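Researcher: Quick test of sequence recovery. Tokens follow.
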């Protein structure tokens, strides 16, 4: 089993920044692609970003391109999501996911974290 724990959420004003972390334990973390997802109140889950196991490739949903950056430190078993220029529409619970696969988008695997709340006020 792979355990994922997100942290770094909080409340910021529009234009602010947050860095989310996804810490993994239990299995060989560096073999897994990692995706970030979010779910806003009353809305479905949305894929936000993705990173290859070695960090060589990333992808972002259009609404966050140029504002969010995903990275990973396999020595620390951690993936990061740097979020800049945050807007109220970024308000959601953010989840990381592992063991999925990527085609033209990242399809989630079976491992999910518990989520971390991000709230952006106008």
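Model:
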């Amino acid at each position: 089993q792979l355990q994922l724990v997100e942290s770094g959420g909080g409340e910021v004003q529009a234009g602010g920044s947050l860095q989310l972390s996804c810490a993994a334990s239990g299995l060989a973390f560096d073999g897994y692609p990692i995706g970030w997802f979010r779910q806003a109140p009353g809305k479905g889950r949305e894929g936000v970003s993705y990173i290859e196991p070695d960090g060589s490739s990333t992808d972002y949903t259009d609404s966050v391109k140029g504002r969010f950056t995903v990275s990973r430190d396999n020595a620390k078993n951690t993936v990061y999501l740097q979020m800049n220029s945050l807007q109220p529409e970024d308000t959601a619970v953010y989840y990381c996911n592992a063991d999925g696969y990527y085609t033209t988008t990242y399809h989630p695997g079976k491992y999910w974290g518990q989520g971390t709340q991000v709230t952006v006020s106008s």
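The two ends are 40 Å apart (CA to CA).
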